[in-house]
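Quick one: structure for this chain?
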Amino acid sequence: ICYTIVGIVAFYGFARFLKIAFSLHGSDRKRMLVAFILLLQGIIFFVLYNQMPTSLTFLAQNNINGTIFGWAIPAAQYQILNPLFILLMSPFLAWAYKRAPGSHVTKFCFGMTLCALAFLILWFPQFFASDGFMSPLWMVATYWFQSTGELLISGLGVAMVAELCPKGISGFVMGVWFITSMVAGPISAWVGSMTAPAKNVTYTA
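Got it. Here's what it folds into:
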């Protein structure tokens, strides 16, 4: 029933958003359609971002060397990297926002690029792994890309849609933006379940 509720709310929100967009003309319509595309990208981002406590933790449990600099690191404790990197990167990005060229959309797309790099770099450890285990530093790098990307996506998402859409519907548009993370929840759970071992198969670390 939860999936049904999510589907109904998401369908209503996105359908009304598009109805309003196509009722406009000229640059206003184009700007709202750009915002809609970025909303869809937001869903993709949050699906991948939510892999931290699911498939990435499964990876850490079964394919990451459990020690770093002589310390034993349980798989679940990699979760601390996310808030840590957000804390460390926030002052830098706050400084960069005011000086870096480009619009909110440009910075949003850069955040999506960081998200893509977070998973792309996990392709390389196969060439350096020892007995199927890779260095925990690869996981640290993945979390850094994801967390920094999250600062750009979440931090700019509301401002971005407010900038692109007419002011008279800013409250509604902000609500639609938050629907993206709601829709991403069940999808990310489904994506994370793909990393589970097949039935009747025992996966040992």
